[in-house]
Write the C-alpha cells for this entry.
Amino acid sequence: MHLIQSAIMISILLLYYIALYYIILHYIILYYIILYYIILYYIILYYIILYYIILYYIILYYIILYYIILYYIGTIVFNFTDVHAELAIVATALPVLLTVSPDSVFNFGDCPLNDRVDTMCTIMNQCNILPVTYQFRRIAHFRAHPSSGKINPGETQNIIFSFNPKQIGKLWAVMVLTLSLTVLFINLLPSSCSQVAPLDYQHRS
C-alpha cells in the first residue's frame, strides 16, 4: 500500500514538472519570437532610413551638379555669344492745361467773425488725353470743397471756396492747389477787392 502511494506521488510530481517544463518552454519560444520580430522591425526601419538618406544625398548631388553645369553653360554662352537687341521707346510729354473761372476775381466781401462767406469757381482740364489729380492744402480761415479729387480729360470740377474768419482784421492767404506734379498758387483776399492772382504754374522738383 505504501509503495502504491509513493508511485502515485512520483507520477504526480513527474507530470507537474513535465507541464511546468512545457509552460516555461512555451514562454521561452514566445519571447524569442517577439524578440525576433522586434529585431526584424528595427533592421527594416534602419534600411528604410538608410535608403532615404542615400536618396536625399543622391538628389542633392544631382541638383548641385545641375546648377554647376547650368552656371558654366550660361557663362560660356554669355562669353561667346554676342547678341544685341534694339528696343524702340516712344513717349509723349503733355503739358498741364488747366483753366480757373470765372475770370480771375473772387470777391468774398466783408464777413462777420465766426460767420462764413462762400464763392464758387470752376476748374477745367483742357487736356484731352490725361486726367488731372488735384489737392488743396489746408490753410487758416479758408477752405476748399471738395479739397481733392480727379478731373478727367475735357471735364470740369466746381470748387467752393469758403472764408470763415476766426479773428478780426484783413486776412490774406495763398491757396495752394497741387495738380499732379504742378503747383498752382491762388491768392485769397477777403475784402471788397478780393481777387485771385493770375495763374502761376510751378513744377515741383
